[in-house]
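#struct-help
A.M.: can someone run this one for me? Single chain, 601 residues.
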Amino acid sequence: MTHTEQYAAPAPWQDLPAGFAEHLELEARLSTSLRNSSLERAQAALDTPPAHVVDLGSGVGADAVALAQRFPTARVHALDVSDELLACVRAAATTAQVADRVDAHRVDLNDDWTVEIPDGADLVWAALSVHHLDNPAKALRRAYSALRPGGVLVLAELAAAPSLDPDDLGSGRAGLRERILDDRPGPGYAGADWAELLADAGFVPSEQREQELVVDASTSDGARYLEHQVRSHRDHLADDVSGEDRASLGEVLVSIRDGASPVSYRSARTVWVAARPQAEGTVDQPADIDAEVAVVGGSYAGLAAAIILARSRRDVVMIDEGQPRNASADGVHNLLGHEGISPRELIAKGRAEAESYGVRVVAGRATGLSGTVDDFTLRLGDDRPRIRARRIILATGLVDELPDIPGVREGWGKTVLHCPFCHGWEVRDQRIGVVCRDEIGIHQAILFRQLSNRVTLFLHEAPEPTEQQSAMLAAAGIPVVRGRIEKLVVEGAEMRAVRLESGESFDMDAAVVAPHTHARTGLFESIGGTAEQTPFGTQIPADPRGETAVPGVWVAGSGGQLTAMVSVSSASGVTTGSAVHGDLVMADLDRMVRSRHDDLP
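D.P.: on it. Structure tokens below:
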């Protein structure tokens, strides 16, 4: 997500100002968490895995690459008018190893760009690009026509003019900010009623969310970004800046470069997720679905269970919300023959296998479960089909409750980690900071010490280690740092330092946290099940085959084994799927024996 309010050139897209592409690169990295949030919303809104995705105004390619990584089944069409920026798109796609699925199209978005892409796109992504156009309403109508019925538009636009704080920019000269800020009217966002424009274009909005990009000088990316902002405003006004203000701005820029500036940049955005209706006029209520087994959850355990059942000629339907727990990770490890494969690529391959055996995949989230053995009903929400099944497999996985420390979520799955077996090799010999919440943090520190001799334990809010624990840490050469953590300094997704509230800062290459994990137990509890507490969190109790205390309801994967990695979750799915098949075989055989007995004279 990028924008260019700070640049004075009236039409920067074809002849880019000096430093423009670098500025977009910085903003793209700083916006990583906002982009990921919007991608999650887009994925939840899609009813099928996308084949064609359109990125309107692709900039330096960060969004196009993220879309290709998020949707491994899709070809991404990156549209921009600048040859320089399209070269950045191609380079970014090559670096991310998705160049075979990212097509760069040179096109002016004020023209009819729909002729450049295949008919019936599944997703159009317009991140801070439409307000630059001569006629945003026409652009939205074109997006509508480019989408297939049921296709999704993600529109992100500025909610207000971006701001620099404080008023004196840390210089001591009151009103400096107002004197350097450009009074040019914003290009379209200020007076646009985007909700009305979406409705006029024919879209049905399904979700609206507010976001805010906040940048300070605590990271090198943030400092460089702020420096660009201040310098561009100063240079735009040129002769209109007084000598005193120009000198103060010079001091502000030095302070920013030194990382000691109080200046922050804020940009509020609104994100709409909207859909083209499936059909014009009244849509018939979708028919209910009957199956022998309904698998709730389409990640590793759910797919493995569905495949083994379908290979035994069972009628299987799988409900997939499309949000695997490890989606943010760079790759999957400890899985024979698939080392380093991206989580979403692995899931896409698994889904293709499942569908090749006849598994029906329904996109969405199960909102309710009722019934008894041989007669269960799953509900997916209003205007969605109900699913009736004889057996239920819950492969709904976990929710990670991360510590409320700035920077944790931004680096999660990249350089903020939790499992030495899943991620330890990738950070071997690096500076690793373990954020302690309880005694599990001490256990993590000792395990990561096998991978690096530069492990530091940050107590944060955890109690003092016991005498025995202190002796173990000392023997392992793990220093203990006391004091509350203010933030993890993360640039893009790269860990830089751990900063304490005291102001002390410790350079680190990776951070380790122990999330509090909770299985998604809502469906299980709604049908009479009782979740259980373990030292690692809440899970669904079951026997080794996955059978729960609720007849006909089974569990597979991490929902019943909180520490299960991908390989273990997949194995759990195979075990549970085969056990459910055996249960159905015996149930059917029992019914046939009783029927035969009843028919005897």
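A.M.: thanks! The mean pLDDT is 87.
D.P.: also worth noting: The longest helix spans residues 566-599.
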